[in-house]
Design the sequence.
């Protein structure tokens, strides 16, 4: 732990990250579906605040608009409509699925961690380059370097929308 | 307003600004937050009284005009003579305090079958985005004091905060364990998600015209010449054709986002008792109302900033006038100083424009049906806003390449093209009903029985 100084920025990032991790645990620990979904909302929101503290405001705001504001609202919508809030409805049986699930989860953790953690070993302070995550740099990247993938994705979304209209309008 | 006046004193003495900037960033941020939240809280009771009075006038009533009237005794010897028998009227200004006292002293009932934790935090979650919304809106020229955070994604921040507003309503509806509340919450979700889109697209057009996402830059862009011409008139977006369309779309969306009539379907009392806040009483209900009125205030502030030129008083560029008409240089400079020194007052006046529109529309229009609401959002506002975005893009590109006149010409052509396209699409799909069923009421003179 040499080289790490307890600065306020570090404390802030550590606190937010710890809370986000707790919320992430809460997502799987709660037996009530609504509580789990709310934990996920909190997790997304705290992640957005983390991005804010790092100066990547565009990434943070996208996180809030897309995940917290749209996707999780739809999650809650579905949970409420199906009314699966009661714990008894979601209880699982004790069988071989549980140990296998734990094993696979650990394997995934090791896989992801082995890719991400080595880059973080020498990092002692939170921080990003000045232009990182600014709207200007993101816009420039999207419309110059990644313009073809960007347009391809928009066409893909268009196809998805047209397809969903086709499915919804079909006469049975 | 007390805090805002303090801000002007700071403006007139730069040393104070320097001292303020030398403070720790934490204290600076705290002062900025208080300078935004404090006045909002002070305006809130006046706003409630104002709404009730204005509604009463619209409906040919008198409205609350009594509370706070002090009548002094005629005979009491202890009173000074000039007060004896006098009546001091406050036009009912104390009504809000009476209302709040009543709500605070009421019994706070929590029904047995509710989800207690969510039931208690839901009003707080409703209030949170209402406070968050205005964090990027500037109310004056001093960058040290306003806005709370001049981040370079100001508009997106507003949209993100408003998208969080749905959680309070949804969770209140769910945790109440009441079918009516749940229905209110679900309706609110659908409504907020639908209208957020049109709002985003209308603001995106303005961001395109400005070339930035900061609200402070929006205000600066509105001090350029009108329509791109070099003249003494300021380019307030409400006076540009595209900005006018965007302002109407944004205005409708901001009423829908705050759940105000005629978009108050989540609390439609003829269908849902009181919708998501059916089970709420006393203080928690007050929090919901407070969130709604704070949302009104903040959206009015945003409307004033984006379309009405921010904290400037009139759409005239004083610096241009002072430069080009030497005879008017002195009054122009005086007006410019007046504008900058009393900026919060002008900003407040412009906020009241938005608030009056809110109340006016509430008094005029009946509540929409659910299908009308969805049709208006998806089939009317979204296409209009998207077309507007394309037209703005055309104008901006052409006026930057070939100058202001070409820009206006390109706008006229593209707007005409859009209209022709709309008509021909309507022609191609005959048998399609319009988005609204028209209903007429024939007013009949009542027969007078003698």
Sequence:
């Amino acid at each position: 732990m040499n080289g790490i100084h307890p600065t306020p920025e570090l404390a802030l990032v550590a606190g937010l990250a710890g809370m986000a991790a707790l919320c992430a645990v809460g997502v799987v620990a709660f037996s009530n579906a609504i509580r789990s979904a709310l934990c996920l909302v909190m997790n997304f929101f705290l992640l957005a605040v983390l991005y804010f503290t790092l100066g990547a405001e565009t990434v943070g705001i996208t996180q809030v608009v897309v995940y917290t504001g749209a996707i999780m609202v739809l999650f809650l919508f579905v949970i409420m409509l199906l009314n699966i809030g009661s714990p008894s409805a979601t209880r699982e049986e004790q069988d071989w699925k549980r140990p296998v699930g734990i094993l696979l989860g650990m394997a995934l953790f090791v896989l992801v961690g082995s890719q991400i953690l080595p880059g973080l070993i020498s990092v002692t302070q939170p921080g990003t380059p000045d232009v990182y995550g600014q709207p200007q740099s993101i816009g420039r990247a999207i419309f110059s370097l990644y313009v073809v993938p960007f347009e391809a994705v928009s066409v893909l979304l268009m196809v998805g929308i047209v397809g969903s209209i086709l499915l919804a309008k079909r006469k049975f | 307003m007390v805090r805002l006046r303090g801000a002007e004193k700071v403006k007139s003495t730069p040393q104070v600004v320097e001292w303020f900037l030398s403070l720790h960033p934490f204290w600076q941020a705290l002062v900025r937050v208080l300078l935004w939240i404090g006045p909002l809280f002070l305006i809130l009771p006046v706003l409630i009284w104002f709404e009730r009075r204005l509604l009463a006038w619209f409906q040919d009533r008198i409205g609350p005009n009594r509370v706070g009237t002090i009548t002094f005794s005629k005979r009491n010897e202890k009173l000074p003579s000039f007060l004896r028998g006098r009546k001091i009227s406050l036009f009912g200004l104390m009504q809000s305090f009476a209302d709040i006292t009543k709500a605070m002293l009421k019994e706070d009932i929590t029904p047995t079958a509710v989800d207690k934790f969510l039931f208690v935090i839901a009003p707080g979650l409703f209030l949170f985005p209402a406070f968050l919304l205005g964090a990027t809106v500037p109310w004056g020229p001093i960058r040290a004091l306003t806005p709370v955070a001049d981040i370079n994604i100001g508009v997106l921040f507003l949209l993100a905060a408003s998208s969080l507003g749905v959680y309070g309503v949804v969770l209140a509806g769910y945790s109440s364990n009441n079918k009516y509340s749940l229905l209110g919450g679900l309706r609110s979700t659908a409504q907020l998600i639908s209208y957020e889109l049109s709002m985003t697209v209308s603001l995106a057009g303005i961001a395109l015209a400005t070339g930035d996402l900061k609200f402070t830059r929006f205000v600066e862009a509105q001090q350029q010449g009108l329509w791109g011409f070099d003249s003494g008139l300021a380019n307030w977006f409400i006076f540009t054709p595209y900005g006018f369309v965007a302002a109407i779309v944004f205005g409708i969306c901001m009423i829908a986002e705050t759940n105000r009539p005629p978009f108050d379907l989540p609390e439609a009392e003829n269908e849902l008792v009181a919708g998501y806040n059916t089970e709420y009483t006393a203080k928690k209900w007050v929090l919901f109302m407070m969130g709604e009125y704070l949302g009104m205030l903040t959206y009015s502030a945003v409307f004033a900033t984006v379309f009405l030129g921010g904290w400037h008083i009139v759409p005239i560029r004083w610096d241009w006038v002072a430069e080009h008409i030497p005879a008017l240089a002195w009054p122009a400079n005086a007006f410019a100083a007046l504008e900058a020194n009393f900026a919060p007052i002008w900003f407040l006046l412009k906020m009241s424009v938005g608030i009056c529109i809110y109340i006016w529309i509430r008094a005029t229009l009946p509540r929409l049906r659910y299908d009308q609401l969805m049709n208006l959002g998806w089939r009317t506002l979204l296409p209009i806003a998207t077309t507007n975005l394309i037209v703005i893009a055309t104008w901006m590109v052409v006026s930057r390449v070939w100058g202001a006149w070409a820009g206006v010409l390109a706008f006229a052509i593209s707007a005409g093209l859009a209209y022709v396209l709309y008509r021909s699409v309507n022609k191609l799909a005959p048998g399609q009903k319009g988005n609204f069923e028209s209903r007429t009421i024939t007013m009949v003179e009542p027969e007078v029985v003698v």
Q: What stands out?
A: The radius of gyration of chain B is 25 Å. Residues 1-11 of chain B have pLDDT under 50 and may be disordered.
